[in-house]
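Q: I'm teaching a short session on how sequence maps to structure, and I want students to see two examples side by side rather than one. Could you give me a first protein with its sequence written out and its structure tokens following it? Keep the formatting plain so it prints cleanly on a handout.
A: Of course. Example one:
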Amino acid sequence: MKWHLLLVDDDEVSIKISSFMIEETHFHPAPISFENGLRASEYLREVYKKEEKYVIFLDINMPVMNGWEFLDEIKNFTEPANVKILIVSSSVHEDDKTRAGASEFVIQYLSKPVSPDTLEELKHSASLGFLFNE
């Protein structure tokens, strides 16, 4: 099954660390990164197909379009059945975690940086394991 992995974060170091961890754990062969939600939503609008799967590692605090605005935008043209979002943030505010949990797209809230152990756990999780077991 073809699936897409998008990394949406304005912090270049976070993107590099995440990309390295994803490669090392064989989580995905070719993640695509975006420095803000607007660029990611424009890309997703162009490539989105209901029969494909999309996993998005999304930062909250970004310029141009932040993570919350991105979530609002993709509701207009995607479905939670095939778009799974993991909030990856340095924010420890309980309000952010609550807000993330209220989104039908968000499957988990992770702290930066994403560790190899977390990626391995995701491979076997109920929400993403199907991507790795085919």
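Q: Perfect. Now a second example for contrast.
A: Example two:
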Amino acid sequence: MDLEFFDDDHLLTAAHVKLVKDLVAFCGQALHLRADTEMAITIVEDAEIRRINREYRATDRVTDVISFAIEDEHEELHGFTAVPRDIGDLFIAPGKVREQAKDYGHSFERELGYTVVHGFLHLNGYDHIKPEDEAVMIPLQKRILADFGLKR
């Protein structure tokens, strides 16, 4: 996985940044993605994720993660080397993640991991709106977290 990571305000510790990067790599392996698959994660304050949620999702509230999946996977161009696949961008608000960890009674690390995996799966076409889709996404999410060692 080729991950671009932005935390300009240093909202995460170095250990948390490492956790996120390691987990993204682990998710890429779990889904058997090409090594040159690209994505970006931007860490933002609660006010910024609320603005993004309001502007792009017409929902005026703070959320933990927003995913912007890129639907088009580029194929080989005229016989040349394949263009790396860009699956999209995640915006994560650690303030909201911290609040949810407290509400659910588990560690910040576990909730951050859950948020990363959840968003990652959305970038790869998984969803949980319909019961049949949820029956695929949620068990996969739980398996990845457990295999990585982030249990409730």
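Q: What should students look for in example two?
A: Point them to this: The helical segments are 14-30, 46-57, 94-104, 108-123, 131-148. Also worth mentioning: The radius of gyration is 16 Å.
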